[in-house]
Amino acid sequence: MLLTDDEKRMRDGADGDAVAAAMDLLVRYGEALGAERLVATRNVAGTMTQPSPAKAKLHAEGGWARVYAVTNLDCDRDIEIPRMRVPTCQLQHGFAQDAAGLTSYPESSIAAQDDAEAFFSDRGVTVLATCTPYQVGNLPVRGEHCAWMESSAVVYCNSVLGARTNCEGSASTGAAALTGRIPYWGNHVPENRAATHVVRADVPVASFQEWGMLGYFVGEQVQEARPAVIGELGQPDLADLKHFGAATATSGGVELYHLPGITPEAPTLEAAFLGDAVPRDEIVYDRAARRAVYDALNAQGSSEDVDFILLGCPHASLDQLAEIARLLDGKRLHQDTELWVMTPRALRSVADRSGYTRAITAAGGRVLTDSCPAMSRAAPPGTRVFATDSAKQAHYLPAILGIEAWFGTLEECVDAAVTGRWSGGLAA
Amino acid sequence: MIVLRGRGVVGGTVEAPALVTRDAISGFGGIDVATGTIIEPRHELYGVCFTGKVLVFPGAKGSSGWSGFFQSTRLMGTAPAALVFSVMTTKAALGAIVTRVPAVVGAVPEPVEVLHTDDIVRVDGDAGTVTLVARAGESADAR
Fold first, then answer.
1. Which of residues 62-91 of B touch A (CB under 8 A)?
2. What's the confidence (pLDDT) of residue A301?
3. What number is the average pLDDT over the span A40-53?
4. ipTM reported for the complex surpasses 0.85
5. Is residue A153 located within the same domain as residue A31?
6. Is there a contact between A250 and B24 if contact means CB atoms under 8 Å apart?
7. Distance CA B99, CA A70 (A)
8. In this prediction, what percent of chain A has a pLDDT beyond 70?
9. For residue A381, how many other CB atoms are within 10 A of its CB?
10. For A72, which residue in chain B has the nearest alpha carbon?
């Protein structure tokens, strides 16, 4: 791989051992990909602070420096971790103090995470602690080269914002943070951003749930490819596209999609293909396909007694918090049911100030931050059946926790929270 | 002897039984790192352990945690012996590097078609080759 003089200096240790290890990892990674060079980035979203059993072992051996060396740089040497070279944020991680005692999630992990936050914020890491950095202060501009993790954030960054990132991992973001470099490959290269497939919605897609189901269908159909989606699409908002993208990156590995007339790199369907012919074969999302997606997401539930409702996957927007507060206002949760809304801590503070938190907690629900049950692998004790309005969470949580799942609209989820019973169904 | 030729992603050579799937593999929510098993309910290898096997699969899907989860299998002693995959992605490339096992991408003929679970295969990550040493049930000496 071709390195600039500055990159060679970093590789050879001019900026210290950690930067040299970071450059070594980037070279190995770039060569594995077949990248010809690296590209400069000043926007890194990664993960350092989340506890895990593997990290606990490393921490016991040599503190957070050892954890960063191995998990964020793939380096076994004892190295000092310097300040991050470029702006770097922490994505979602484990549960924080606000969830202490609510689940079997260990208090020791919460304490370990607090300790990690202190270590890494001393080194220039901004602790956004959310899967949606674009909601709380990290909003890349079109064309900006980023090094982001979190599949739902990556697809939003590329598709909705028109910035450029691959789906990075703990090690590549760790190396990017110390060098300001990432392999110039994949989504960084303009010609790799052309659409590959046309998906046409023959049924109306105009609600949060419908966008999520369409996304789940699209991901399953195109896997890692780049779909241009047309048809009976309503005007989406932030939450709709957050849900849609997260679903495409759950059933498949979509990192970039185009919605002609909506997303920035596709003023038209033709433009989405960057001058290549638009394929004649369309993948059609019709009534039968919609029903199949709904049934797949609801094939993991048999008991209609719901004991846990999870909202805010990806982390809830202010509009979603306001809507949940409105639906719960003056109501009371069923005695055997818990309701959690996950949101970034920054938005939680706006929700507190705007009365949303009060309405949700007065009904018996909770507004929690930093994480989610899937990330922290923990739900309220005794949870057997959960319901959610998120296709992503409905997909992952049964596998992670061995519980049943129902997927429906926000209104159906709130109804289940109040009655303790699932009575959702697919609207005609 | 059948030799599949692709590109090496991580160097080194290993010989082990294959575990073959036509389904892409998810890291987060897809594998349990403590036991080295596939835990995605809809996956054809649901409940199957990949520790010590040559994992032959189309590619990586799902969360960006992929590489971190596979790195954890190395740290927990449950890693596969090698990775053989068809589609190059950042998840699979970085995952192979941090798992530190021989890895080959894009081999032809298509490994998922040619190889079967429990075939004995040799993966050479430097040469970028996957060699069928013995079919499942055959002794390697009988070849």
1. 62-68, 71-72, 75-76, 87-91
2. 84
3. 96
4. yes
5. yes
6. no
7. 11
8. 100
9. 10
10. B68
Q: Is the peptide bond before B109 cis (omega within 30 degrees of 0)?
A: yes
- What was the pLDDT predicted at B28? 87
Q: Which domain holds residue A350?
A: 300-419
- Cβ atoms of A311 and A342 closer than 8 Å: yes
pLDDT digits (tens, 9 = 90+) for A97-132: 999 999 999 999 999 999 999 999 999 999 999 999
Q: What is the pLDDT of residue A252?
A: 87
A378 has a pLDDT exceeding 80: yes
- The whole-chain average pLDDT of chain A stands at 97
pLDDT at A94: 98
Rounded to an integer, the average pLDDT of A269-296 is 97
Cβ within 8 Å, pair A70-B41: no
Select the residue of B61, B64, B66 nearest A154 (Cβ to Cβ): B64
Give me the residues of chain B with pLDDT under 70, please.
Answer: 139-143
pLDDT digits (tens, 9 = 90+) for A235-276: 999 999 999 999 999 988 899 999 999 999 999 999 999 999
A19 burial type by CB count under 10 A (0-12 exposed, 13-18 middle, 19+ buried): buried
pLDDT of residue A390: 98
pTM of the model: 0.95
Best A48, A71, A184 residue to mutate vs chain B (most B CBs within 10 Å): A71
Residue B24 and residue A185: Cβ atoms within 8 Å? no
Would residue A425 count as lying in a domain? Answer: no
User: Whose structure tokens read 């944020």?
Assistant: A89
Q: Tell me: do A183 and A69 sit in the same domain.
A: yes
Q: Which residues of A touch B9 (CB under 8 A)?
A: 32
CATH, range B3-138:
3.50.30.10
- Average pLDDT value for residue range A318-333: 98
Q: List the single residue in A53, A57, A253 with the smallest CB-CB distance to B60.
A: A253
pLDDT recorded at residue B137: 87
CA distance, residue A54 to nearest chain B CA (Å): 6
* pLDDT at residue number A209: 98
Residues A250 and A366 grouped into a single domain: no
The values of phi and psi at residue A144, to 5°, are -65, 135
B106 inside 8 A of chain A by CB: no
Q: Which amino acid is at A45?
A: A
Q: What is the DSSP letter of A71?
A: I
Looking at the DSSP assignment, which residues form a beta bridge with residue B14? B123
- Asked if residue A314 has a cis previous peptide bond (ω within 30° of 0), the answer is yes
Q: Are residues A170 and A287 in the same domain?
A: no
Return the exposure string of A45-63: e unless at least 16 CB atoms fall within 10 Å of the residue's CB, then b: bbbbbbbbebbeebbeeee
Instruction: Provide the number of structural domains found in chain A.
Output: 3
**Mean of pLDDT values over A67-79:** 97
What is the C-alpha separation between A113 and A102, in angstroms, rounded?
17
The residue assigned the tokens 């997303």 is: A263
Ordered DSSP codes for B27-94: STTTEETTTTEE--TTSTTTT-B-TTSEEEES-EES-TTHHHHHHHHHHHT---SEEEESS--HHHHH
- Boundary (domain end) residue, out of A252, A278, A296: A296
Question: In which element (H, E) is residue A338 found?
Answer: strand A338-342
The two structure tokens encoding residue A162:
């028109």
CB-closest option in A74, A169, A374 to B66: A169
